[in-house]
Amino acid sequence: MRSVLKANLVVMGIFPAFLLGSTSLEKIEKAYREKKLTREEYLTLRVMAVVEPGNLPSEYRGEKPTEEPCGTKYLTEAFREMGYSILTRPVLSGPEDTIFTLHFMVHYTTQGSDSTDPSYASLVAAFAEFSWAYEVGYLGWDAPPPDYGYGGDDRYDIYIMSLESGVWGYTVPEKPGPDPYQEEATSYIVISNDLSHDQARITVAHELNHACQLSYSYNEDSWWMEDCAVWMEDVVYDDVNRYVEFFSSYPNPLSNPDRSISCEEQLYEYAGGIWPAFLAEFYDLDVPRKAWEKQGIHHGNHTLSDLDFILSEHYSSSLDEALREYGIWRYFTGPRHDPYHFSESYLWPPSFVLRSHHDYPDSGTGDPEPPDSRGGTNFIELYPQGGALMPTFNGAEGCGWSVTLIGYRTGEPPREFPMNLHAGNAGCDSFPFSDFQYLLLVPTVTCWVDSGPDLLYSYFVDSIMQGEPDISIYPDTVVIDVFYRSDRSWNIFSGTFNVKNWGSADLVYLKNFLFSAGPCPPSFWSS
Q1: Nearest 10 degrees: CA dihedral of 327, 331, 332, 335?
Q2: Whether residue 32 is found in the same domain as residue 165
Q3: Between 437 and 158, whose confidence is greater?
Q4: Can you tell me the distance from the alpha carbon of 428 to that of 445, in angstroms, rounded to the nearest whole number?
């Protein structure tokens, strides 16, 4: 028998038929959006969909199984908002057997719907000890707090049961923990009784990381909890790589680089495990743990501000800078994999390229996939015609933008050229073109205080062809004050114009380009 819900759910009214092919969770979500459920009913039904789907009211029973392998976020959100666990400890379908290890008690039965072979239970116990040794012993994460003797003693409890099709496991926050300085919760884990060897390994590692997270805080964002647990699967069992499967779901951070890191649409947060993977590879392996340590002692939900604090305090960086680099790293996947970015990105599909340009001048916008806040980005490829490239950019105001040009040549490290943006998120600059096979324009939203989805921008690109070097740009950057305004559409701001020495460019050509719409006044420039 499954866990027993302590709360009595009263669902009022008669609901219309839902579309065929929906999961239970999708039906519950739809009813809540249509204001047919109270918040408490909504939270309780979602827990029931994970733990006791057979007891759901008929109108919420799904025609297809859930695609989410972990139900922890639904249990944690209910615990966080309701202040207590709405579940009692599981009662198995037959007489309970127990395996004792140094840190765990594994509960299982050999009878009824929850039945499993003792050898499977022994494997789960072994996987749990291995994961503990790696996550707690080697990486230094907090051990789950003692559970006041529930389940038999203070060792951590794992129950092996028959779960809803598609669910591999979940971690249940149960009671506030004993540490008064952290928002910790005691917990236990439930694991499916019909997983393959590799599925069981990574599920145990995944759920144990949730238990470690709960030893710090139960108040952090669900996407961050799931991101870190998926990442930890690959850290503990690097040979399995189950997370790669989620790049075939929609949306994900590669097919939809415009989405925010905090996106929870469909299965995004499972593929989103590459965000903490980036933090671990770009900075070091301790960043996710250090963030959780800060989040544990900073009561309330401060997921992003605490991560920004850790990057500033320990790495002389910031969340803004991390989001900029994360945008760049996601381009180098699949056939674009290189030794300078994600170590496993050769296993991944190529990320989505918004647009490629081969002829100039040309222009574009972020449509049809404009980026969201918190790290949304686009990739725009610019193929050379020689000389230098002159891009201009105009981004939506009220948020932070980063625009980077990446110069790519096979066999060489990509070169990054940050673009200077002025007030109002507008800018114009020049970059070398003929030195590279192509350039990549990467506009990224770096503000992490949420400013909404679909942040618009426009850009214009032109190439400056080299003329006769009768007047050459000197080796140092020359700053030209623009006194005259032409009516060219790309002239979107006043002030200075930066010209860099990308070769023996012809200033006469540049002058004629700038003022092709009208005469050049005598006092055109000063330096």
Answers
A1: 160
A2: no
A3: 158
A4: 18
Domain shared by 367 and 434, yes or no: yes
Domain boundary among 240, 259, 292: 240
Are residue 49 and residue 121 in the same domain, yes or no? no
Residue 521 placed within a domain: no
CATH number of the domain to which 473 belongs: 2.60.120.380
| Claim to verify: residue 361 and residue 507 sit in the same structural domain | yes
> What is the CB-side half-sphere exposure of residue 53 using CA atoms within 13 A?
21
Same domain, yes or no: 97 and 55: no
**Residue 243, pLDDT score:** 96
The DSSP code for 444 is E
Residue partners of 159: CB distance under 8 A and separation at least 6: 89, 90, 92, 107, 108, 188, 189, 190, 191
Residue 87: strand pairing partners? 5
Nearest to 225 by CA among 156, 168, 301: 301
* Residue 15 in this model has a pLDDT that exceeds 80: no
With CA atoms as reference, report the closest residue to 222 among 84, 335, 325, 80.
80
Query: Is 70:168 a contact under the CB 8 Å cutoff?
Result: yes
Number of domains in the chain: 3
Contacts of 304 (CB under 8 A, 6+ apart): 262, 319, 374, 448, 449
Angle CA 165–171–175, to nearest 5 = 140
Residue 222 dihedral angles phi and psi, to the nearest 5°: -65, -35
d(CA 61, CA 215): 33
For 82, the 3-state DSSP assignment is helix
Which amino acid belongs to residue 249?
S
Shared domain check, 55 and 155: no
Residue type at 275 in one-letter notation? W
Neighbours of 411 (CB within 10 A): 5
Give 332's contacts (C-beta < 8 A, 6+ positions apart): 338, 340, 341, 342, 345, 414
Contact 427, 421 (CB under 8 A): yes
3-state secondary structure of 266: coil
The answer to whether residue 109 is domain-embedded is yes
Tokens of 341: 């970015």
Model pLDDT for residues 190-235, shown as the tens digit of each residue: 999 999 999 999 999 999 999 999 999 999 999 999 999 999 999 9
In a domain, 296, yes or no: no
Tell me 227's DSSP state.
Answer: H
- Cβ atoms of 308 and 319 closer than 8 Å: yes
Domain that holds residue 100: 88-240
Give the number of other CB atoms < 10 A from CB of residue 186: 24
Q: Which of 210, 249, 215, 252 is nearest to 231 (CA)?
A: 210
Rounded distance between C-alpha atoms, residue 376 and residue 323, angstroms: 8
Burial class (CB in 10 A: 0-12, 13-18, 19+), 471: middle
Q: Is the peptide bond before 180 cis (omega within 30 degrees of 0)?
A: no
Are the CB atoms for 273 and 281 separated by under 8 Å?
no
Q: How far, in Å, CA of 253 to CA of 16, rounded?
A: 35
Same domain for 439 and 380: yes
Which pLDDT score, from 0 to 100, does residue 524 have? 42
How many other CB atoms sit within 10 Å of the CB of residue 281? 16
